[in-house]
Amino acid sequence: MAHGGAVVPVIVLLTLCTASALSSGGVAAGGNVGGRTEIWNVKENKEVQELGRYAVRERNRRAGGDELVFLCVVRAQSQVVSGFKYFLRIATTASGGQAVRRRSRCFDAVVLVKPWLGSRELLHFLPATSSLSRRR
């Protein structure tokens, strides 16, 4: 039994890893592996606001007609996939016309970000529903 001395350090290491995962808010602490996480302080979050601007610009480029003007992201959730999927509720207004006559409208957008590739992709951009879209 030449490897018998390695069993104790392995058990100690596994115990420490498990304790670390539990104390850092993993599944046992209420997290949801692969599930969505609410992003708080959305209006102060520059990255989330920039993703909202990107979503509106990309939607305008694809639509090629009536342009929307980005106002702000009002709600956001993230999900770890092969990258990060952001579920955004975006307040917009129509471009053109007098500012008084423009009404704001909300849209639900999904943006996939792969930081290691430096890429982001608009997956969905639809009129808002009563709750943030559950589309995956």
Features:
single chain, 136 residues, alpha+beta, Nuclear Transport Factor 2, Chain: A, five-stranded antiparallel beta sheet, 2 helices, 37% strand, protease inhibitor, signal, thiol protease inhibitor
What does this structure look like?
Helices cover 26% and strands 37% of the residues. It has helices at residues 7-23, 46-63, and strands at residues 36-39, 68-81, 83-94, 104-114, 119-127. The longest helix is centred in the middle third of the chain and has 18 residues, at 46-63. It has a 5-stranded antiparallel beta sheet with strand order 1-2-3-4-5. Belongs to the cystatin family. Phytocystatin subfamily. This is Cystatin domain-containing protein. It comes from Spirodela intermedia. InterPro entries: Cystatin_dom, Cystatin_sf.
TL;DR?
With 136 residues, this protein is of the alpha+beta class. The protein has helices at residues 7-23, 46-63; strands spanning 36-39, 68-81, 83-94, 104-114, 119-127.
Looking at the chains present, what oligomeric state does this protein adopt?
single chain
**The top level CATH class name of the largest domain:** Alpha Beta
CATH architecture grouping of the largest domain: Roll
Residue stretches low in confidence (pLDDT < 50, at least 5 long) are 14-31
- SSE class: alpha+beta
Work out the strand percent.
Answer: 35-45%
Number of strands: 5
| Span between termini | 51 Å
Give, in order, the helices and strands: HEHEEEE
Signal peptide: 1-21
Protein name: Cystatin domain-containing protein
Keywords: Protease inhibitor, Signal, Thiol protease inhibitor
Domain Cystatin: 31-128
